[in-house]
Design brief:
Number of domains of chain A: 1
CATH superfamily of the largest domain in chain B: P-loop containing nucleotide triphosphate hydrolases
Number of domains of chain B: 2
Radius of gyration of chain A: 22 Å
Number of strands of chain B: 24
CATH topology of the largest domain in chain B: Rossmann fold
Strand content of chain A: under 5%
Helix content of chain A: 55-70%
CATH architecture of the largest domain in chain B: 3-Layer(aba) Sandwich
Order of helices and strands of chain A: HHHHHHEEHHHHHHHHH
Largest sheet of chain B: 6 strands, mixed
CATH class of chain A: Mainly Alpha
Distance between the termini of chain B: 65 Å
CATH architecture of chain A: Orthogonal Bundle
Strand content of chain B: 25-35%
Radius of gyration of chain B: 25 Å
Oligomer: heterodimer
Shape of chain B: globular
Distance between the termini of chain A: 31 Å
Strand order of the largest sheet of chain A: 1-2
Number of strands of chain A: 2
Chain lengths: ~375, ~500
């Protein structure tokens, strides 16, 4: 967003407050659901989710190891959210991030397992695959006026089935375990370089994905706020007609935005699958990372840095679900509670941004002065 | 004891930071035409919203026939017999006149429409008040004047006896305005009470019995129209005396800057061209105006000229260079400035700050960016300079989000930006739309200054006063064609009206 940090009552502060409120509300609702299922152990359950891996806080080494795994899993989520946020700033709803992430999985695993490439080129392949997937949606949008949501959803499924076909082959998939080979064993050169392994209690999965994600978030912040390209994108997002009037090339920007957004999504996949932590198994549904990214982007107030914290929170809660005692609760309950918390996060904020959207409210007795003057003017024009 | 049908006593409505209505009293007598006069932002719309129950006032009471009433939503207002003709008609374009009139209170038996009675009532009403319309005509096929009659019939059909007209003449030709004035007088004679919102003084002088004036949310006074003058009304409205005419020396046209030849634009709605074979030129140092009633192809023509819309045939030359097929950016950077018709749709990115809007077409130029990074300091300096030169006022200076600025200042910002850019031709479309008298005066002066600096100016306006005052030549557009060219010094409003309504046209007229 703009640099308007001069007052405490600035929108930035309000957005942070709203996000925190959403998170608290989500946890509360999750608690209520636990109560209705098994009242006796609900408090214990919700505190297990919240305490999470900090229950190991007695042992620093174990704690840091868990912390490392938590960070590794958070990074792709944050990256997906950044991808969605970036497109959203240009007025595009990139629900296709899930598919771009999926083709990113194909590229990173196929190049590493089947082709035996070095990690650097595997990452590049994933980026290129995601960008291509974004480009298809972008070209359809720009030149044939096909809604990017529709194109995105279809491409998600195409990506999924391609993924099942390509990674399901004997070159990538261990047919006995029906999951892809372990890259650490098959092609160690494809594993991302380690990052502060000692600090994270010898966690072998902590890689440069962590700093790279932070760098990308900052890069997005800079591109959006400092560059002419960001200026164009945001102008297009706010007011497409005015962007056209100003002589901006809307078609080029649409394609470019979705290419970049897709590239980030593809990159996200490489940053998880090339750590060796995750293996791909044949799936009947599109990986949820891209969809959770939508909630994260909104929870993060559509701010590149806010998104980092939102991503950490959502991943933390997701991880916490594993600590729910399955003697008292059906294992699916954990997922349900987590899903409610995550999606409430996204929705409440979405709702809030709608209420606060100035000028759109037709008749609102509590309208702010700025809105009323704009409204009065609209009426009189 | 006067016989007041509606009284709004000591109404105060506050919004955070602004008092929109400050102790306003408005008393409407039975059977009178009462004008409500005020500039934009004077509080007219807020006051009417209070009357319609859209806003709840902090202080004050509303009385109907002397009894206090509570209006908390528009349905309450309708139940009290209050009806309104909005400036932008609330009609369903593809429905018939009759269907539009009964819409919202459809007569029915067991859920089936029974239109016969309704038809009879509508026909009776239109005969009684001389509001001639065909009940079976489809709205989109009839003229704006007739559509307005449908709106009036809608109120009468609902047995409203308090009728509010919100700037009803803005979209009409002079002939249609005369007709409307007659209808309003007849309605008043039948005992209906009329509240007439306007800022056109001539119309008040012609039909109103009394006039209440608001200025900046405050009640200034109520005068009997018979005992006042236009000058008195305008100084009450603005708080100072206003020049009605624009001071300008005779034009001194130079070389040809814009040459338009046989431009056609295909309509998006129907088979015919929305702009057909338009040819004319604009020379340096003159103001050429395209006049016409809204919706006669002006918007489409400007779209084709500036590149916002596609052109289907014809050529456009700017300073002898064919720019017909050039991009918007090319036109922007090669001598064309454009004050767009709709400042919110095209002219501004409302959620951007003032400074960001000031460089909307120039952000990529070396003056404002280096290596793809925007030079924020230079942007701020530039914005501050323009804001100072053109008196653009805003709450937080260059950082103000444009959405929070008043309409007049938004428009001034656009005018400043477009005039400061390098250009030979300025296309000004409705440059004073929705602005108050003070801002209009200012923008007119700036446009004349531009002309005297040797720029070519193409003005497109629906306001006849503006057309007559500002232009050096007038081209009238009717149904997508230029039907006549007149000299503002030698023509009359009536003659213009005949051209605008298609009743008169110059035969075989070509560009000179």
């Amino acid at each position: 967003m703009e640099e308007k940090i001069s007052f405490f009552r600035r929108p930035a502060v309000q957005t942070i407050l709203a996000s925190v409120l959403c998170a608290v509300l989500g946890i509360l609702l999750g608690y209520i659901i636990l109560l209705t299922m098994n009242a006796e152990h609900a408090t214990e359950g919700i505190s297990a989710i919240l305490t999470n891996f900090f229950k190991f806080s007695g042992n620093t080494k174990v704690l840091m190891k868990y912390m490392g795994s938590f960070l590794v899993k958070s990074m792709p989520l944050i990256l997906c959210a950044e991808a969605i946020l970036f497109a959203y700033k240009a007025g595009l709803f990139n629900i296709g991030a899930a598919g771009q992430y999926t083709v990113g999985i194909i590229a990173s695993l196929y190049t590493s397992l089947a082709l035996g490439w070095n990690w650097f080129f595997c990452v590049l392949a994933a980026v290129a695959a995601g960008a291509l997937w974004g480009c298809i949606a972008g070209v359809f949008k720009a030149f044939f006026n096909v809604n990017e949501v529709i194109a995105g959803i279809m491409l998600n499924w195409i990506g999924l089935y391609l993924c099942n076909i390509i990674l399901g082959g004997a070159k990538c998939m261990d047919q006995t375990k029906s999951e892809t080979f372990d890259i650490m064993a098959t092609n160690p050169s494809a594993v991302l370089p380690a990052f502060m392994t000692e600090f994270f209690g010898g966690n072998k999965y902590t890689t440069i994905a962590i700093p790279l994600t932070i760098i990308i978030a900052i890069l997005i912040l800079v591109v959006l706020n400092k560059t002419t390209f960001g200026y164009e994108l945001k102008a297009t997002g706010h007011n497409k007609e005015a962007a056209k009037y100003a002589g901006m090339n809307a078609k080029r920007n649409i394609v470019l935005t979705l290419v970049i957004s897709g590239a980030i999504s593809g990159f996200a996949a490489s940053q998880l699958y090339l750590t060796g932590m995750e293996h791909y198994t044949i799936s009947a549904s599109v990986p949820g990372m891209g969809f959770s990214g939508i909630a994260v982007a909104f929870l993060g107030g559509l701010h590149p840095i806010g998104t980092i914290f939102a991503g950490l929170f959502v991943e933390y809660i997701t991880l916490g679900g594993q600590y729910l005692n399955t003697n008292y609760y059906n294992p699916q309950v954990a997922d349900l509670v987590i899903a409610i918390i995550i999606y409430l996060c996204g929705f409440v904020l979405f709702f809030k941004s709608f209420i606060n959207r100035p000028g759109k409210v037709k008749v609102n007795a509590n309208a702010e002065p700025a809105n009323t003057s704009a409204k009065a003017e609209e009426k009189e024009v | 004891m006067e016989d007041y049908v509606i009284e709004m006593l000591h109404i105060t409505k506050e919004f955070p930071g602004i008092i929109a209505n400050d102790d306003i009293t408005l008393q409407l007598k039975r059977g009178e035409i009462h004008a409500l006069l005020g500039e934009n932002g004077a509080g007219k719309s807020t006051l009417m919203s209070v009357l319609f129950g859209l806003y709840t006032p902090e202080k004050g009471v509303i009385k109907k026939d002397g009894k206090e009433v509570k209006i908390s939503n528009p349905n309450d207002a309708t139940a009290l017999g209050i009806g309104m003709v909005h400036q932008h008609f609330m009609l369903v374009d593809i429905f018939s006149v009759l269907d539009n009139i009964i819409l919202g209170s459809e007569p029915n038996k067991f859920g089936f429409l029974t239109k016969d009675e309704a038809r009879k009532k509508v026909v009776d009403l239109s005969n009684k008040y001389n509001l001639k319309v065909d009940p079976d005509a489809i709205i989109e096929d009839i003229t704006v004047g007739m559509q307005q009659r449908v709106e009036i019939l809608k109120m009468l059909y609902r047995d409203n006896d308090i009728l509010i007209f919100d700037e009803p003449t803005a979209v009409l030709t002079p002939q249609e305005i005369d007709e409307l004035m007659k209808i309003m007088k007849e309605l008043a004679a039948e005992g209906k009470s009329i509240l007439f919102i306007t800022h056109k003084l001539n119309e008040i002088m012609e039909v109103a019995d009394r006039c209440s004036i608001l200025r900046k949310g405050k009640y200034i006074g109520t005068v009997d129209v018979a005992n006042t003058t236009k000058e008195e009304l305008s100084s009450m409205m603005v708080g100072r005396s206003v020049k009605f005419a624009v001071d300008k020396a005779p034009a001194n046209p130079g070389k040809e800057v814009l040459k338009v030849e046989n431009v056609c634009v295909k309509s998006k709605i129907h088979e015919n061209d929305s702009v057909h074979n338009v040819s004319f030129n604009v020379r340096a140092g003159e103001i050429v105006c395209i006049a016409g009633i809204d919706g006669n192809g002006q918007t489409e023509f400007v779209g084709a000229l500036t590149g916002l819309d596609d052109i289907s045939s014809g050529t456009i030359k700017l300073c002898d260079e064919d720019i017909t097929k050039k991009s918007i950016r090319y036109k922007n950077t090669h001598g064309m400035s454009h004050i767009p018709e709709d400042r919110h749709k095209h002219g501004l990115v409302l959620d951007y700050s003032l400074e960001e809007n000031m460089i909307l077409q120039r952000y990529f130029e070396p003056a404002f960016s280096k290596g793809g990074i925007i030079k924020k300091n230079d942007m701020r300096k530039y914005s501050d300079r323009l804001a100072k030169a053109f008196d653009v006022r805003s709450g937080r200076g260059a950082k103000t989000i444009v959405r929070s600025m008043s309409g007049g200042n938004q428009q001034k910002a656009i005018v400043a930006r477009e005039m400061d850019r390098d250009h030979e031709l300025l296309i000004a479309v409705q440059p004073t739309r929705g602005l108050d008298v003070g801002a209009i005066e200012y923008i007119h002066e700036e446009i004349v200054k531009e002309r005297d600096n040797g720029k070519a100016i193409l003005l497109v306006s629906l306001e006849l006063d503006e057309v007559m005052n500002l232009s050096d030549r007038i081209l009238v557009m009717y149904e997508g064609e230029i039907v006549g060219e007149v000299d503002p010094k030698k023509t009359t409003l009536q003659e213009l009206g005949l051209y605008m309504s298609g009743a008169k046209r110059d035969n075989g007229k070509e560009a000179n």
